Amino acid sequence: MTPRGEAGPPGLRWAVFGLAAAAFWLAFFHRVAPAAIAVELQSAFGLGGAMLGTLAATYYVVYTVMQVPTGVLNDTLGPRRVLTAGSIIAGAGSILFGLAETAAAAIAGRTVAGLGVSVAFVSLLKLNANWFNERRFATVSGLGATVGLTGALAAAAPLAWLVTLVSWRRVFIALGVASIALAGAIWLAVRDAPAGRVASAPIPGAGRWRQALAVVARNRATWSCFWVCFGMSGSYMAFVGLWAVPYLVHAHGRTVLEATQHTTLVILASAVCQALVGAWSDRIGRRRPIILGASILYFMCWAGWLAGLAVVPGASWALCAVMGFTLGGFTLTWSCAKEANPPGYAGTAISVVNIGGFLAVGLAQPFAGWLIDRAGAAGLSGAAQYAPGIALLAACALGGFVAALFIPETRCRSIWVDPSRQVPGPVPGEPPLNADGRR
Question: Which domains does the chain have, with CATH numbers?
Answer without folding.
Answer: 10-404 (1.20.1250.20)
